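Hey Z.,

So I finally got round to the adenosine-5'-triphosphate thing we talked about over coffee. Here's the setup:
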Amino acid sequence: MSAKPIVEIKDIKKYFPLRSLGKKNAKFVKAVDGVSLEVYEGETLGLVGESGSGKTTLAKMVLGLLPPTENTVLIEGRDIWAGKHKKANGREVSAVFQDPASSLNPRATIYKSLERPLLINGYSKEEAREKIMDTVEKVNLRKELLDRFPNELSGGQQQRVSIARAISLMPKILVLDEPTSALDVSVQAQTLNELLRLQKELNMTYIFITHNLSVVRYMSDRICVMYGGKVMEIGKTDDVYFHCQHPYTIGLLSSVPPLHPKQRDRKKHLLSGDMPSLIDVGEGCRFCSRCKYAKEQCQTTEPPLKEMGAGHFVACHFAGEIDFDAE
Ligand SMILES: Nc1ncnc2c1ncn2[C@@H]1O[C@H](COP(=O)(O)OP(=O)(O)OP(=O)(O)O)[C@@H](O)[C@H]1O
Ligand code: SF4
Ligand SMILES: [Mg+2]
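And the result:
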């Protein structure tokens, strides 16, 4: 991992309009509401947070699939959303999504599914064949599967095809959005290890999205915790995992068994309630309605991200002051 940012996200926002209300009364779902972060070359940044916290929306703006409402993403210093077409080119960033079956065309053979993006990107039929053979070898997919249709493959094999397709254009950045959660437990670990091997071999940078906090710890160099379209805490994996300072992070971690007995008793921090609506968001801290440490200030003033240690940022007014071990 280098200290060079390959992705720079600058105060990015994505607001989805609620169509049912008409233009005059327009209201918005503030899915991502001012996220700034950097992803460094060769690292894996894990993105965690409950359902609806804005992880996929953020990833899609990095992938060039969803234009931001405000601000932008730089990849290697280049603004991918600059220019009137507002369309990023997909060669630098690729993605693997959760459900391999739905991301493959059921009527195309595996070979055709792998060939298509190469042809679109200017490869000849012959060059595409060579590339496909090379890529399926990299992901350990048996060549005889190339003539089959997706429904003739196991979930693990389908996900290998998705990974092969994602890496065939040699992207520098791979977004992995819950890549193993639809797989059998027995193939999950194998797929994760293969992703780690490929990352080293091909020198890729990963943005790894998951609900599984044990998986994110295994895979990531740094962890970014999102809630309600905002970053709550970001830092090196061990800092976030073992020395978290945000009440939301400790709540999330409470669902994971502690790794050693000395670790904080996290059970008492289990999250209750649901994430509030992202439509009429108040002025204060997004986590306010569920936070047992909330004070008056939290209702009215949004906490900025403060650096609490080298590269460890926390968005809480009382970061560093809360004693999570006290009752
Ligand atoms: N196309 C859309 N139109 C309107 N609202 C959307 C759209 N896409 C996402 N949202 C809303 O934006 C918020 C963030 O969604 P997003 O899919 O980014 O969350 P997520 O963190 O990826 O959740 P999950 O863990 O369930 O995948 C949610 O409230 C969602 O309903
Ligand atoms: S700012 Fe207040 S409400 Fe938000 S996490 Fe910190 S203590 Fe809780
Ligand atoms: Mg998602």
